[in-house]
Design brief:
Layout lengths: L7 E5 L3 H12 L4 E5 L2 E5 L10 E6 L13 E4 L3 H10 L3 E10 L3 E7 L5 E6 L2
Parallel strand pairs: 1-4, 5-8
Antiparallel strand pairs: 2-3, 3-4, 6-7, 7-8
Helix pairs in contact: 1-2
């Protein structure tokens, strides 16, 4: 396989500014928002030469946040505990605290963003 299986992801939002501020707070990076004929997209930072998938927040009539349906996105975390603390501080809700998946896979956690999406974190330690 030449590339990772996941090539792109979109997180549905109902309030772009609220979602943008939440993700910028949790992950400590900047999101650029553009409007494409009524569809707002907030671009997550992306490095073409680094591993991983690109993606965006999307505000559009057909996109609906969900805490228990649909795709579950795992963000790579350097320190799950720190990021969960920032989730709480930004107003998100922790669904599952840092949990060992398996020694050779690492740890995961789940949270709800301010839009009502279920999002996961993953790290090796």
């Amino acid at each position: 396989m030449e590339n990772n299986v996941v090539g792109w992801f979109e997180i549905p939002v109902t309030d772009m500014e609220r979602a943008k501020k939440f993700y910028e707070t949790v992950f400590e990076f900047e999101i650029q928002v553009q409007d494409f004929h009524g569809t707002q997209m907030g671009w997550f930072p992306f490095n073409e030469s680094a591993p991983g998938a690109a993606g965006s927040l999307v505000k559009q009539a057909d996109y609906e946040p969900s805490e228990d349906k649909g795709v579950l996105i795992y963000f790579s975390a350097s320190d799950i505990i720190s990021e969960l603390n920032r989730v709480k501080a930004a107003g998100g809700k922790i669904i599952q605290e840092k949990t060992l998946i398996a020694e050779d896979i690492g740890y995961m956690a789940l949270f709800l963003d301010l839009e009502g999406n279920r999002i996961a974190l993953h790290c090796r330690e």
